[in-house]
From TrEMBL:
Record flagged with keyword Acyltransferase: yes
Residue ranges of coiled coil: none
Name of the molecule in the record: Acetyltransferase (GNAT) family protein
Entries under SUPFAM superfamilies matching the protein: Acyl-CoA N-acyltransferases (Nat), RmlC-like cupins
Lineage: Bacteria, Bacillati, Actinomycetota, Actinomycetes, Micrococcales
GO molecular function: acyltransferase activity, transferring groups other than amino-acyl groups
Keyword terms: Acyltransferase, Transferase
Domain N-acetyltransferase span(s) in chain numbering: 131-281
Annotated Gene3D superfamilies: 3.40.630.30, Jelly Rolls
InterPro entries: Acyl_CoA_acyltransferase (IPR016181), Bact_Acetyltransf (IPR050832), Cupin_2 (IPR013096), GNAT_dom (IPR000182), RmlC-like_jellyroll (IPR014710), RmlC_Cupin_sf (IPR011051)
Cited Pfam families: Acetyltransf_1 (PF00583), Cupin_2 (PF07883)
Natural source organism: Ornithinimicrobium cerasi
Length: 285
């Protein structure tokens, strides 16, 4: 018997990032055909598939596709092939919905775009063992921004976004660090900035991925950032600006010997920001 025609109305539907939708028009192990809609400003994360070869055909709007190291524009009425094991990312940088037909052979398992290709474990303390600080690379920035944009993070920090972080990486006065585990998964990040004041550096940002919090990663991140600061010649003072209602962060900083003080005239703080200062003579409590 011939199958019934299938459409958005009758196909199984899934969503990701709360805004993007896929209708699974053909859902067989050897072949998947999805119709997908990505609203303006949305994107997939860079990811690869071990076995699946895919073809993305743009029905309307325009896709920005990052394939390996190459970025290209794929307008409506054109398509692009993505071979297995090639990293790819799709973005809708236009003003209208990006609608695509996505053919995958074999079918891609799971959500169309996994939030993290390698999810973090939740074992208490387990993530701390073997994790270390390394300089951030451009390829880490998507995860950094995901962490930053998560609920319960954004409210505590100032500027951000992919472009802002990319500019920080290029800025010789700034140091961008990530804390990674043994699999090189980004668990947390921190930013330090030079100051015009002799012997002083500013800790601009300390953020742990929400699913990794409460396991000692914040403590490990801060300890290693302070070691980096100390390794700089003549640095004696590290200061930071923390929201007065950010009790979690304030108690972490206090336990390392940061003290809340009247801000010096050169320190620029957020509206509800408190000035906290650490001196090389202080030690972790
Ligand atoms: C602040 C932050 C970095 C702490 O990271 P974390 O991995 O949860 O912290 P840890 O598990 O290492 O805990 C370290 C200390 O933080 C404090 N802390 C952590 N969670 C806390 C909570 N829910 N309430 C109060 N204090 C808390 C405690 O002093 C704790 O030490 P303890 O476990 O010995 O009591 C993390 O919560 C975060 O990323 N928050 C959002 C971004 C942010 O606010 N950054 C700071 C901007 S200035």
């Amino acid at each position: 018997m011939a199958p019934d025609p299938i459409s958005r109305d009758t196909a199984r539907r899934s969503t990701w990032d709360e805004r993007c939708t896929a209708w699974h028009l053909l859902d067989r192990p050897d072949l998947g055909v999805d119709e997908q809609c990505l609203p303006p400003g949305s994107s997939s994360r860079a990811h690869t598939h071990d076995r699946s070869r895919q073809f993305f055909f743009v029905l309307s709007g325009e896709a920005t596709v990052v394939l390996g190291r190459q970025t290209m524009t794929v307008p409506a009425g054109t398509g692009i092939e993505v071979p297995p094991r090639v990293s790819h990312e799709l973005r809708n940088e236009g003003d209208t919905d990006l609608e695509m037909l996505v053919v995958s052979a074999p079918k891609v398992a799971g959500k169309p775009y996994a939030h993290r290709t390698r999810p973090l474990a939740r074992s208490r303390g387990g993530l701390v063992v073997g994790s270390y600080l390394r300089a951030t690379r451009r390829g880490d920035l998507r995860t950094v921004v995901d962490i930053e944009e998560a609920l319960d993070t954004r409210q505590w920090i100032g500027q951000g976004g992919l472009e802002w972080h990319a500019a920080v990486l290029e800025d010789p006065r700034m140091e961008h660090w990530v804390l990674v585990d043994r699999l090189d998964r980004v668990l947390a990040f921190g930013i330090m900035a030079s100051s015009d004041q002799p012997g002083v550096v500013e800790l601009r940002r300390t953020v742990v991925a929400p699913e990794g919090r409460g396991q000692g990663l914040g403590r490990l991140l801060l300890r290693q950032l302070l070691e980096q600061a100390r390794a700089r010649p003549q640095v004696t003072t590290v200061w930071l600006d923390v929201g007065d209602d950010n009790t979690r962060a304030r108690s972490l900083y206090r336990s390392f010997g940061f003290v809340e003080k009247e801000p010096p005239p050169w320190a620029t703080l957020l509206d509800n920001g408190l000035y906290m200062e650490w001196n090389a003579t202080s030690h972790e409590g």
